[in-house]
Every structure is written in C-alpha cells, then in structure tokens.
Amino acid sequence: MGLSGTLRLKQVVASRSRGELEQAALLAASHFGFHYFMFWGRFSARGESRGVRFDNFPVEWHRYCVARGRDLLPGSLRRRALQEVTPMLWSKSAPPRDRSFAKARECGLATGVSCSVRGPQAQWSLTSFALPHDGPAAERRIVSALPDCQLLACAIHYAAARVAGRSLDGSYPARRLSNELLSERESQCLIESARGKTTSEIAQALQISERTVAFHLANVRRKLDAANSRHAVTKALSLRLIAAG
Fold first, then answer.
1. Can you tell me the mean pLDDT for 29-42?
2. Which of 172, 131, 145 is nearest to 18 (CA)?
3. Quick check: 43 pLDDT over 60?
4. Which residues contact 201 (CB under 8 A, 6 or more apart)?
5. Who's near 139: CB < 8 A, 6+ residues apart?
6. What's the fold here for domain 184-238?
7. d(Cα 113, Cα 111) in Å, to the nearest integer?
8. Taking the model in full, what pTM does it have?
9. What's the topology of domain 2-169?
10. CA-CA distance, 31 to 119, in Å (whole number)?
C-alpha cells in the first residue's frame, strides 16, 4: 500500500462526521487509481437503523437510474455482491447483453469491483470502485488493487458505523475491549495480515503453525468485535493497538 496509502486509510478511520468520511473515502479511492466510487451501508444503534450512502458516480448515470427507479449499481450487482464474502469483479458478473451494464459503460462506469462487509446486529455495507474503461489492462489494474480495496472497504464500514452511531445516539461510546491490549503474538499476526500475507505466509514468517496463526487472528477478531481480519486491522489502527506502516 505504501506510506501515502496508509495515511489515506488513517484519514478514513479518523473521520468524525459524514462529510469528513465522504471526502476521505473519495480521496482514498482516487489514490488507489479509481475514477468512481460508491459506499452504501446500513447501521443500527439502540434499535434504530440508519443508512449511510455517498458516491461520485456520473450525473448522467444518476439520472438514468432515477428515471427508471433502478439501483445505482447496474444489473443485479448489489444483491449479488452482498451475498459474497470476497470482492466481486463486475466483469465476472455482467451478462453480455444486459442493457443497464451497456448504459453504465456509456456513462463511464465500464468496469469495477464491489466489496461487502458485515458486522454485528445485521450491519452491512457495500463499497464499489469503478473505472471508465474496460479491457485486460483495466482488469489487471483492479486485481492488483484488490487488497487495498478490501482494506479500504473495512475502514469505511467501521468509520460509517461510528458516524451513524453518533447521529442516532448523540454520542458513540468507545467499545471496551475484552483485553486492554493484544498479546505480542496477536499483534504480530495482525500486522502481517495487514501487509496482505496469507495464513500460510504469516506462519512461515513467524515460524509457527498455520493453526496457531488462525487461533491468534480469531482471538483478535473476538477482542475487537471485528467482522473479519481486515476489519480488525482498521479497528486496531484506529485504537493505536498496532502501528501503521
């Protein structure tokens, strides 16, 4: 990701209002090479539910969708992406003769990827990144950016949940961890995960078994109340339990 990418991510995590979050998220998406971006999430607090949504999709596409009562993601992308646990490439999901995908390409949304994140209490979000041109070069660019996209999607989800909680409750009390600090081994595993390493690669780097790595990461997710390891990374960064870098 690099230092500048890490700084963009920290700006997202540190956002204290919807406006700050929107600006930080759009800048981060642009930094990672995407022209267009959309976030849509639903969060709850004290039995109430609130949606958080923002994007910079082309105005022409907005008009097309409003006029037809369509979702901003072409075809059935939103429904299908929310059923996935891994990023969904638009190129793998677009029917060859779907009119909405053809219109999206015409408006500048030629190809992209959508990343879903789920949290406690039925919270969910979908973050989409898009490019104005498709083709092999564009797809390679998206695939190379997938780890950054996943990490950014988790960071925005966490920040949006906090922002939504503040708007519903007037405040957002920090969740108390079951441990004051992560253990040294848990921190090491989480840091390696933040660098994009697999369980096998982490085990090799730390000279422990893959089963032990999985055990430590599961403990981290439990302590941080995180939906997955990427979500745990963003929460650990925001709480300064691990250092960015």
1. 93
2. 172
3. yes
4. 192
5. 89, 91, 111
6. Arc Repressor Mutant, subunit A (1.10.10)
7. 7
8. 0.70
9. Beta-Lactamase (3.30.450)
10. 26
